[in-house]
Amino acid sequence: MPRFAAPRPSATRPRTQQEDHRRVDANSWFPTAALRQTGGMESWRDSASQEAQDDFDELLNTVLPFAVETLGRHGEMYPFGATVGKAGHTALTAGEPGVGKRPKSNDVLALLRDGVAADKDALRAAAFVADVRMERSDAIRVELEHSEGSAIVVLVPYTRKRLRRALELADMRVQWGELGIWGGQPK
Description:
Blueprint: E1 3-5, E2 24-25, H1 32-35, H2 50-74, E3 80-85, E4 90-96, H3 105-118, E5 123-133, E6 138-146, E7 151-160, E8 167-169, E9 173-176
Parallel strand pairs: 2-5
Antiparallel strand pairs: 1-4, 3-4, 3-5, 5-6, 6-7, 7-8, 7-9
């Protein structure tokens, strides 16, 4: 039975190409054109309320360190999420679709989205995080959505430092996202 709960990192062996089930393609949930549209984007902050800006900042400050730590420690991660409740409390979320020990990342993302959609009346904002492969690097993708109607995607390319359990992060890229939870239509 599918479950929706707080995430916990699991000890796993390093990922091989055949076992790349936890990684999703960067284009699998967003069109390629949107991923290349980082240069000419007006600032999302110009159209977002102060509350939405603060919620997105809080979500990023919650999920990015967790993603970096998990990828550094284990070399991989399942998608996970975070939410901001109506009272302003932030919580991490995880999904386990109940399809065995190695579910596909897109199945986990779908379960996370379904869980947040079911609770959307009690929430102000949500973030969905995945380890993605871009053309020339790996990246942490964070999809952020706010109940007021703002949606952005943050990509943080990274490389592994040699002989260390650490990541070297490149510059963050931000682009417009699509409303799925509060937009009336599933992504």
